[in-house]
Amino acid sequence: MPVDVDAEVLSNTRLSADYNVLAIAAPEVASRAEPGQFVMLKPGPCDAVLLRRPYSVFERLRDGAGRPIGITVFSKKVGSGSSLLYEAALGTRVRCLGPLGRPFTLVEPPARALMVAGGVGLAPFATLAETLSRSGVESTLFYGARTAGELFCLDRFQYPNVRLVLATEDGSRGVQGRVTAPLETALDSLPAGQPVMVYACGPEPMLAVVARLARTHLRPSELAMERLMGCGMGGCYSCVVKMREASGATRYVRSCVEGPVLRGDDIVWES
Fold first, then answer.
1. Could you tell me the pTM of the whole model?
2. Cβ proximity of 60 and 71 under 8 Å
3. Cβ neighbours of residue 66 under 8 Å, at least 6 residues apart?
4. At residue 17, what are phi and psi to the nearest 5 degrees?
5. Cα distance between residue 178 and residue 91, in whole Å
6. Taking 90 as the threshold, does the pLDDT of residue 270 lie above it?
């Protein structure tokens, strides 16, 4: 069950003029959060913003004894709410509701994991990479951005069984082009009998390509959708996604309740 806490800001690491990683004291949330879940944050004074903003749980923080003490979120400054999070000072308070939503399905060895992140879509993969690494799953993170200056937090993925493949649209680091290109190459080279799960988060055009590539290669995929969420609890219907059922019929689901992680094969992509 989610909890609603008044969380103290523990640190605010500004990565650039637009991106930051905010750490907040929320042990109740950290102890419950699973990879792919999110929180709804309300920064600043009570009247500073009307609605909370959704953020994937980036990291689960622990003290020296391994006890959960809080979480971090990976944020890009785009509006009033995210600007307040970017400016949040040490010791100020943030309302935090979570964890919310459906998490990723965790695979076990000998299955491999292919994680695909575009931009701030990196957010759910720090906890996923950590969890899969502890269980011995061999993983690859395909991480793409427009330029090398927008590839952040690579140190969060320094695990012996996690490989990084970077891509930039301008070619300033890693493969030049879209991050889905090296993903396709990797899928092409997998042995036929190798069990694999494809995980992805990022812009929806990227997610649509990831779902198509996984389906073409007969691999399952789970996508963390980045739909706009007004409440995070299923009450406002602002985050609906069109899905296909086994019968062929379609229906709309609320990504904050039945997602944000959804099966790629079941999503109906609107053109």
1. 0.95
2. yes
3. none
4. -70, -10
5. 40
6. no
Peptide bond into 260 cis (omega under 30): yes
Q: Which helix (H) or strand (E) holds 216?
A: helix 204-216
pLDDT attached to residue 45 = 66
169's CB contacts (< 8 A; 6+ apart) are 144, 145, 146, 147, 176, 177, 178
Q: Are strands 261-263 and 250-254 parallel, antiparallel or unpaired?
A: unpaired
What pairing do the DSSP bridges indicate for beta strands 3-14 and 93-100? antiparallel
For the chain, domain boundaries: 3-100, 112-220
Any bridge partners for residue 251, and if so which?
243
CATH of 3-100, one of 3.90.79.10, 3.30.460.40, 1.20.1090.10, 2.40.30.10: 2.40.30.10
The CATH class for the domain spanning 112-220 reads alpha beta
Instruction: List all residues 6 or more positions away from 175 whose beta carbon is below 8 Å from its beta carbon.
Output: 165, 166, 167, 168, 181, 182
Of 33, 40, 38, nearest to 5 by C-alpha is: 40
> Would you give the distance in Å from CA 222 to the centre of its chain?
11
Q: Note the pLDDT tens digit of each residue in 57-95.
A: 999 999 999 999 999 999 999 988 899 999 999 999 999
